[in-house]
Amino acid sequence: MRPYVLASAAVSLDGFLDDTSPERLLLSSPADFDRVDQVRAGADAILVGANTIRTDNPRLRTRSGPDPVKVTLTTSGKLDPDAKFFTTGDVAKLVYAASPVVPSLAASLDGLAVVVDAGDPLDPHRMLADLAARGIGRLMVEGGSAVHTLFFTEDLVDELHLVVAPFFVGEPDAPRFVGSGRFPQGRMLLVETRQLEDVVLLRYLTGQAAVDYRRLREAVALADLCPPSTTFRVGAVITDAAGEVIATGYSGEHDPHDHAEESALAKLDGDDPRLAGATIYSSLEPCSARASRPVTCTQHIVNAGIPRVVFAWREPDLFVDARGAELLRGAGCEVVEVPDLAALVRKANRHLPGVG
Question: How distant, in Å, are the alpha carbons of 141, 180, 190, 279 from that of 187?
Answer without folding.
Answer: 20, 18, 9, 23
